Amino acid sequence: MNNDRFAKQRVADDLDEPVEEAGNLARKLGLKPYPVNYWIVDYDEMNELIAYGGFQQRYPHWRWGMQYDRQQKQGQFLGGKAFEIVNNDDPAHAFLQESNTLADQKAVITHVEAHADFFANNEWFRMFTDGSSRTTTDESGTNRRRGPDAAGMLARHGDTIQEYMQDPDIERAEVERFIDHVLCLEDNIDQHVPYSPVETVPEEFEDIEGADVTEQLDDLDLSEEVKRQVFDDEWLDAQRDDDENVTFPAEPEKDVLGFLRKHGMQYDADAKRATEMEDWQTELLELLRREAYYFAPQKMTKIMNEGWASYWESLMMTGEQFAGDDEFILYSDHMSKVLGSGGLNPYSLGLEIWEYVENTENRREVIERLLRVEGITWRNFDESVDYEMVQSRLEPPEWLTDVPGHLDDLDPEDPRVDSEGLAAARGGEFDVEQYPWKVLTYEGLAHRHYSLVKPQYRGFVSRIGQEELERTARYMFDDSRYDSVEEALADVDYTRGWERMREIRESHNDVTFLDEFLTQEFVDDNDYFTYEYTHASGDYRVTSTDHEDVKKKLMLQFTNFGKPTVVVEDGNYQNRNELLLAHQYNGVMLDIGQAKEVLKRTFELWGRPVNLLTIVKEFDDHDVEVAKRRDREPEPEEVGKRIRYDGDEVTVTDVDWSEVEHLTATDIDYNTKPDEWLA
Question: Which of 577, 557, 660, 624 is nearest to 236 (CA)?
């Protein structure tokens, strides 16, 4: 044990300088990450952390063991390797596996710093901590609102659930079963609004049970238990007027867990009726709902977050040579494997879109400067501009690409030179060969790493289309600012691409990110396409390279975490206190088998029959055969279905189209920003 501790300490000692300098470089590049605490862990500890979602303490449950076993098998049989895990916390906590090489550790550290910046500055993560009173003082002495204390929150939740499991009056198995029911619905929250706890006493109680009768019961000052036992739902139904039909909520409720927390009950099998939940059940439901809201932003920004971290990791490791000469090949090999892995790869897709954002914004900056040159218009742009000359003018000067070789020639008054860093370098206070970025300002680094002069993007400016040129010129007023192209290019803002990236990082999630920046140019450049299963051939075929088709296909996988969107439509369906859920259909069918099992879980949180409206596609066998012979796709018929579980059996019945027509989307609903953000 002591040897293990000493081994970890040696690794930690070796990483002291990389950790400090990676943080310094990240801030020099304009990132503003949470402070990060780094921990060295062994192989088994890393697998445990991954199983626990990046935290050291969670509530007791079989799911963690299953995930731990899966992670171990992946490492043993599939060659998978865990390099790091970092959580959204303030300060953030990152765990490094001690067996990793120094090159891998440096890559992880630079990757983590970018993740910590994303956690701290993306609005979707901030929604969980809105209203928090936690504050801290940063390095400049300024007070700032602190981010989440997630490790503390999850540890407290774990302790609470552990206490219930050890309570002699509560069966441990019953607690685990209840957790299973809730986890089945953990993605059925409204992730587009800030988290807030549900009121303990339902405010709508009077509206639920029928106002006149309920008011009379309230006058008797009876306990809730007595009300439920003596004046049960059946009795209350009998007291209502025949024409009375109380429905709620007024609008479909997306936070299914919150609705069940407020109005749900448990089913008493002996008494064959619904009864109030136990205190431990309502508390657990709220704890797990809070955790679902905490983890929601990570699910909503997977592509953006991983792409953001990969972008800055690559810039630091290769662009600023944070990877030493003896580490570069190993790092490049591992990075290529990460970016080249199959399937929908969030690292690769995210990185490609961020680079495209940077390039398009930098190109716009250059085009706007050139359109302000006397005599150059969008109509004669291609004939008037020498793209080779433009490219050469955008190249950084030699002293920027080779700082150590020109240390004595640097001008401390140049806005791209950090005068304090230059003095320290000339005084031998640090190795300028290893850390040339310390001599440069943010502006200097932006010019040093300007995207449009990189070999793979050298033709990006010349690819500007007439439509974009006209659109850019349409809103320009001072279109004769410069007398020459040289004068215009001397005025280029080299930071504009990075500034635009930071703006997007603050406000977008994966769905809005894809919607705005997955253009036809991007699809063509990166060879994206859609494929579908065809009934005619019985296999999968490429169906489109149109960016709108690619966009819809991708966005369907990220809207609502890639899960079906199900809302509460009525908590008093058919005036019988039954729950009616509705699947908001966007052309993708539910798995009916899974839907049945989910209804069984939901019944345990509602205590009364549960219904689900959905739409399915049905194919006529004859039409399928004809389509195969003619090599075309058969036209499906969309049919409304209602699935119902009453505690004993599941039934599936056809419903009239009028009952489900409102569930169909004329187009996929990608509007995922809070209303106030759209103002």
Answer: 577
Q: Is 669 exposed, middle or buried (0-12, 13-18, 19+ CB in 10 A)?
A: middle
Confidence of residue 476 (pLDDT cuts 50, 70, 90): confident
Chain centroid to Cα 15, Å, comes to: 30
Whole-number Å distance between alpha carbons of 425 and 417 = 12
What's CA 579's distance to the chain center, in Å? 30
Q: List residues bridging with 542 in a β-sheet.
A: 531
The 10 Å Cβ neighbour count of residue 531 is 12
Residue 614's closest CA among 566, 553, 555? 566
pLDDT of residue 30: 97
Helices (H), ranges, 481-590: 485-489, 496-507, 510-517, 520-526, 547-556
| Residues counted in the chain | 679
pTM over 0.90: no
Instruction: Tell me: pLDDT of 141 over 80.
Output: no
Residue 241 half-sphere exposure, CB side, CA atoms within 13 Å?
6
Q: Which of 126, 127, 128, 148 is nearest to 136 (CA)?
A: 148
State which amino acid sits at residue 39: W
Residue 621 above 80 pLDDT? Answer: no
| d(C-alpha 564, C-alpha 512), whole Å | 18
Query: Over the stretch 390-418, which tens digit does the pLDDT of each residue have?
Result: 999 999 999 999 999 999 999 999 999 99
Helices (H) and strands (E) in the chain, counts: 30, 14
Whether 80 has a pLDDT exceeding 70, the answer reads no
